[in-house]
Fold this sequence. Notes:
Structural class: mainly beta
Number of strands: 33
Helix content: under 10%
Bound molecules: beta-D-fructofuranose
CATH superfamily of the largest domain: Glycosyl hydrolase domain, family 43
Strand content: over 45%
CATH class of the largest domain: Mainly Beta
Largest sheet: 7 strands, antiparallel
Amino acid sequence: xxxxxxxxxxxxxxxxxxxxxxxxxxxxxxxxxxxxxxxxxxxxxxxxxxxxxxxxxxxxxxxxxxxxxxxxxxxxxxxxxxxxxxxxxxxxxxxxxxxxxxxxxxxxxxxxxxxxxxxxxxxxxxxxxxxxxxxxxxxxxxxxxxxxxxxxxxxxxxxxxxxxxxxxxxxxxxxxxxxxxxxxxxxxxxxxxxxxxxxxxxxxxxxxxxxxxxxxxxxxxxxxxxxxxxxxxxxxxxxxxxxxxxxxxxxxxxxxxxxxxxxxxxxxxxxxxxxxxxxxxxxxxxxxxxxxxxxxxxxxxxxxxxxxxxxxxxxxxxxxxxxxxxxxxxxxxxxxxxxxxxxxxxxxxxxxxxxxxxxxxxxxxxxxxxxxxxxxxxxxxxxxxxxxxxxxxxxxxxxxxxxxxxxxxxxxxxxxxxxxxxxxxxxxxxxxxxxxxxxxxxxxxxxxxxxxxxxxxxxxxxxxxxxxxxxxxxxxxxxxxxxxxxxxxxxxxxxxxxxxxx
Length: 502
Ligand code: FRU
């Protein structure tokens, strides 16, 4: 048995988020709820803690908090890397991969063909199937099933489209360099027919990757459905590097029509702040949704990293956590629509021995004020704030007097701010130390923040989840202080509650 010593890796290993045991990880892939189990596949390098040898890693969970890692599900070989994709449960065996009474799970992934293959440099879509509930996979012998001769055609997300006219499989994928989402349909997952394309539109400051398309009820009304098209892009996010944008509109089985496009064609760089973002932070990328979640819930998870510095974050031998799983819903606002996001899992069973900390209304004066009894490194913090005379106010987490991550509001600028310049280790990459912002509006004069703090991350859900901002941080294990702060005046804390985990 190997003795476990306290290493950097242990210090940052998340308590409430998934990270692989000792390998690299990027995009979530093949997300599906099947036979009572959530399956999270993901881009992994089985041999190293940097990107390469792309294969699908695999983990499962029944509560979306504790994950069990399994052997690599679909491995690269001499001819292809296994890039991102999705999994469907082919319950009627349309693909013919099923046997007897066993219907297959079918993975649709991008074959990134290597020099040694017959298609060097091509990206095309391929299939693999599982007859044991997702634990072992067989590649389809006639791969690829969809090849347009493109070097940047990838990240297929497949779902079952049902309408009065019947049902079929629909694939959304990208032509990454063209800022285009392409839509295909199939009856057997093997023969695909091009339906339409969408884009360029809104943010085009980087390649488009990992799209998704799903319907959501508006304000919970099942009679009023809108379709949400999500597209990740890299770089070109609102605070630099990787990020995901979304469009709301209609899908008629052939074409997606966006009702929220701000700029058609190539991007106007000054308008980034007007586009709709899945998350405004630096570290929420390649987010896609789970298939077949019970009760019609739409759950998404993102890779909590940014291609700008992904290979450099100080967490070897594992590298990169996933975000929390988020439930997304759609709310109408001022004649438009907005995704609202909440942490999906019930974290209550994971609350630690340390009692929760609560504070009622107090005035925050200029300066930084440590909250005795609130310290911790894995916490859920909920607070409500009302502006006074301060130009900025909020909370510092994972602090120790010298370091800390500032999460605050600048009311006159209408901004949520996360400042990680003094958050701990930042020097592993020149672009990591940053102060990042998102537009935010007060509700009845106040701001509501729910924060999930873990050993190497902060996820901010502001205004009931209408604005989210996710960031990695690498503080010392001993930096656990929580403080209130105000700059240049006062503010009012209406309430604060801290739940401690771990
Ligand atoms: C996004 C991405 C995908 C690709 C995968 C390769 O992060 O670049 O487009 O399929 O990563 O690992």
